[in-house]
Design brief:
It is built from 18 helices and no strands. By secondary structure, the chain is mostly helical.
Length: 425
């Protein structure tokens, strides 16, 4: 264990130096926390950005897994001779395990803290990916991917809970917006890195690369994460968020909107490669651009929500814009690439733009002490949508056309908008 901690501290040192965060305030804060001393306000102010960097990095590593599998779609399809609906089932498999584990992980984070949950979950995900890389059969591959998703899911609540605890309400939307950029940034990294890796080393190489990312993030979190000070809330009823009707409305509405996101991001590489003639690398580049623009929109939407002091009103407006963009994309699926690609990038980026608002709203509804449970519950709803949407979208496309598929995907945010209509947060 001592060697493990030394290694993780070295990784933390590298990360903080790379991102320009001085080590002195980090080490000062960590030493004070370890010995139960009060941390100077300046050190806290600086250390919280390290917490944000670690949480964002951990989430990005896990996001690279469930967003990286679609990037590996062409090589996966060739490796196991899969149909398009079968590829949809593989994409969904990453989320199947998380449906079961997200809430327990969140409850555990509330009970024992986010450090153990984050590190243990990511290390387990890394192991599952290695097993998938060397799987002797397709059944073993799917089982290993499912387990990796179930174990890595702990990072969702743990990293969000950590960031919430170190940032006050007036900056929380912005901070969690940055943290939520981890999803598109992880997807962007996967979209850029995995095609050449898969071209050189096949499916096995891509999965091992994803496993290494999870393992490094686990070590960094183990070294650097600490519990935020001064939690005075009662922890006698950790499951309280599950009894709040507003939490159910928020989670269901968010899950419906996510159906559009899962449909676009899960199949954009296959669509552009198989139907519009782009190479896998070129299609991955478009996906990377979508992720980059989506990441920027997440930060802007978080700042916007801090400014207007509301989370749901901006979310509803973004959901409406997403629905419109999907209708436009559906109408342009057979048009020239010069017309199609801007519409597709806009729809994909908008599908990523709103998540930070829902995430922040869930945490604030429950309060920090129960934020792990709240985020676990909300993320479970999103995971259900991520599991159900890809096979459904693939089946619609297989039975009709890509245009019909994108057009029907526009119904997801409209349904979410209707559910969230009377929610005021």
């Amino acid at each position: 264990m001592a060697d493990l901690l030394l290694g993780s501290q070295a990784i933390l040192r590298f990360l903080t130096q790379t991102f320009g965060i001085g080590l002195a305030p980090v080490e000062q804060a960590l030493e004070a926390l370890e010995h139960g001393r009060t941390i100077a306000s300046g050190a806290v102010s600086r250390y919280r950005w390290t917490i944000l960097a670690l949480g964002t990095g951990a989430q990005a590593a896990y996001s690279g897994v469930f967003l990286g599998i679609p990037v590996l779609g062409p090589v996966l399809r060739t490796e196991y001779a899969l149909s398009l609906p079968e590829v949809g089932l593989v994409i969904a498999a990453v989320n199947v395990g998380s449906v079961v584990t997200l809430l327990p992980w969140g409850l555990l984070a509330d009970r024992i803290g986010e450090r153990f949950v984050l590190a243990t979950g990511l290390m387990g995900a890394s192991g599952g990916l290695v097993v998938a890389a060397f799987a002797p059969s397709f059944a073993v591959f799917v089982a290993a991917i499912t387990v990796a998703g179930a174990l890595g899911a702990g990072v969702n609540a743990a990293s969000g809970r950590a960031v919430m605890g170190w940032f006050e309400e007036r900056q929380r939307g912005f901070a969690l917006g940055i943290r939520q950029t981890a999803v598109p940034l992880g997807g962007m990294a996967a979209a850029l890195a995995l095609p050449p890796i898969a071209a050189a080393w096949g499916l096995r190489g891509g999965l091992v690369a994803l496993a290494c990312g999870c393992f490094v993030a686990a070590l960094a979190g183990l070294s650097g994460l600490r519990e935020a000070p001064e939690i005075d809330e009662d922890l006698s009823d950790l499951a309280h968020p599950l009894k709040d009707a507003r939490m159910w409305r928020l989670s269901i509405g968010s899950g419906l909107i996510l159906g559009a996101q899962a449909s676009i991001l899960g199949f954009v590489v296959l669509f552009l490669h198989g139907e519009r003639g782009l190479s896998t690398a070129e299609a991955g580049g478009i996906l990377a651009l979508i992720q980059l623009v989506g990441a920027a929109l997440r930060i802007l939407s978080g700042r916007w929500s801090d400014h207007v002091r509301a989370r749901i009103a901006p979310l509803r407006q973004l959901a409406l814009a997403l629905a419109v963009s999907l209708v436009v994309t559906a109408a342009l699926t057979e048009a020239s690439l010069a017309m199609l690609l801007p519409a597709l990038v806009a729809a994909g980026a908008l599908s990523l733009s709103w998540n930070a608002l829902s995430f922040t709203a869930a945490a604030e509804l429950a309060g920090r002490a129960r934020s792990g449970a709240a985020l676990g519950f909300q993320q479970t709803a999103l995971s259900v949508a991520s599991t159900a949407a890809p096979p459904l979208f693939a089946a619609v496309v297989a039975a009709s056309s890509w245009g019909v598929g994108f057009g029907l995907a526009a119904l997801f945010p409209l349904a979410g908008l209707a559910v969230l209509r009377r929610l005021a947060i």
